[in-house]
Specification:
CATH superfamily: Cytochrome P450
Strand order of the largest sheet: 1-2-8-5-3
Helix content: 40-55%
CATH architecture: Orthogonal Bundle
Number of helices: 16
Number of domains: 1
Order of helices and strands: HHEEHEHHHEHHHHHHHHEEEEHHEE
Largest sheet: 5 strands, mixed
Structural class: alpha+beta
Oligomer: single chain
Radius of gyration: 22 Å
Length: 428
């Protein structure tokens, strides 16, 4: 694969450190700081859109076309490292997980064909538009109930009191998880993110390793209970299909639950939070959307482009390749920075501007591309659209409070710590 003539390798684990002329860019890159990475992304897209980071031992890919090309070529660029811990797991954390029986594997994102094709075909029949449409009234009830809890106060942290629980309650309804378990599963999901994509010390890994054991045991129990008592939810559907002859194992069903109980709500929590933040922070975006709800669908696409929940994802080269004119040796890891590609001026005119009327906003790559395109993309957009419609209708005077927004240090998930907001008068 190539978008330009080949260049010498730039500091890879096979051929050594980066040459001095690239050191400045690579050395100023902090892959864990997601507070405002976009100015760096813009500079790198212009000056060196593919470079090697010694900090995380990976090639950083920043242009839209290059990212799409890597995603699309799953034979050359494997997803096998997508869920691998960025930092080595300590011996003690490994012991905790081994003794606890932790054997979880990716539901889909780290699998490759033929297993990926087989499992995705089975799962998407149960986790798709038909089921989402059926649950839409319940989504609206969950959203309205969440707003009821704080609307009369005139202020709230809309992450902690709204966006944190709503996607979890929706997803857990789909997976048959009782509301009483929401906090535990959210805690386990946070541990998974930090242990996989964070920068934890060996001692910091240990409590998260214990949470991984609890998390995986819970997913296995979900599947086992469906064998005992059939249920109208995703694990119940998959067990029923298995009993009818579908080629999927209990371990694979538990792994699907393990993946969805993380990705199916954590990223939507972040999407809702970022949507509220960006719409309130940019000019008349909120009032425009409030006054014309037909803008909501495209506004969600623009939030996904401008402030995605996941700013970067990983791949591993299975053969020597060329990306953006740079030689990538076999065995190299790559970090595809979708948060950069989404603002690439070659695709998005005035890409650093937030515009809810942007005609091609949906050309973002926040859900990936190719065979691993996010399975739950329709659900995430549906939930966020319903949330924005309800908030803008019921809290028309919504505004951000002064606040210092911080983001969890990791390489992939751009999660704000709070969304403090106030309003003058609730409606309804």
């Amino acid at each position: 694969m190539s978008t330009s003539l080949a260049a010498p390798p730039r500091g890879c684990p096979v051929h050594g450190a980066a040459p001095s002329h690239t050191a400045s860019l690579a050395e100023t890159f902090d892959p864990f700081d997601l507070s405002d990475p976009f100015p760096f992304y813009a500079m790198a897209r212009r000056d060196e859109p593919v470079f090697f980071s010694e900090e995380i031992g990976a090639y950083i890919v920043l242009r839209h076309a290059d990212i799409k090309a890597v995603f699309d070529d799953w034979q050359t660029f494997s997803s096998e490292n997508a869920q691998a811990p960025l930092r080595p797991i300590s011996d003690e954390a490994k012991r905790v997980m081994k003794e606890g029986g932790f054997t979880a594997y990716s539901g889909l994102s780290a699998r490759i064909p033929p297993d990926h094709t087989r499992i995705r075909k089975i799962v998407q029949g149960c986790f798709g538009p038909k089921r989402f449409k059926a649950i839409e009234p319940q989504i609206r009830a969950i959203v309205e109930g969440a707003i009821d809890a704080f609307a009369g106060r005139g202020e709230a942290d809309l992450l902690a009191e709204f966006a944190y629980d709503v996607p979890a309650l929706v997803l857990f309804r789909l997976l048959g998880v009782p509301q009483s378990d929401v906090r535990d599963v959210k805690d386990w999901a946070a541990s998974r993110a930090l242990l996989t994509w964070g920068n934890l010390s060996p001692d910091e890994q240990i409590p998260h390793a214990h949470n991984m054991v609890r998390y995986w045991s819970y997913c296995q129990a979900l599947v086992a209970s469906r064998h005992e008592t059939p249920s109208d939810d995703l694990p119940g559907d998959l067990v029923a299909l298995q009993n009818e002859g579908a080629e999927i194992t209990d371990h694979e069903i538990a792994s699907i639950c393990y993946s969805l109980l993380f990705a199916g709500h954590e990223t939507t929590t972040t999407l809702m939070s970022n949507a509220i933040r960006e719409l309130l922070a940019h000019g008349t975006s909120w009032t425009d959307l409030r006054d014309d709800p037909s803008l909501i669908a495209n506004a969600v696409e623009e939030v996904l482009r401008f402030s995605p929940s996941i700013v970067a994802w990983r791949r591993r080269a299975k053969a020597d390749a060329i990306v953006g004119g740079v030689a990538i040796p076999e065995g190299s890891d790559l970090v595809l920075v979708m948060g950069s590609g989404n603002r690439d001026e070659e695709v998005f005119a005035d890409g650093e501007a937030f515009d809810i009327r942007r005609a091609n906003a949906r050309n973002h790559i926040s859900f990936g591309y190719g065979i691993h395109f996010c399975l739950g993309f329709q659900l995430a957009k549906l939930e966020t659209s319903i949330a924005l419609e309800a908030l803008s209708r019921r809290l028309p005077g919504l505004r951000l409070q002064p606040q210092e927004t911080a983001f969890v240090r990791n390489i992939s998930f751009r999660v704000p710590n709070a969304v403090l907001a106030a309003w003058d008068r609730p409606v309804g």
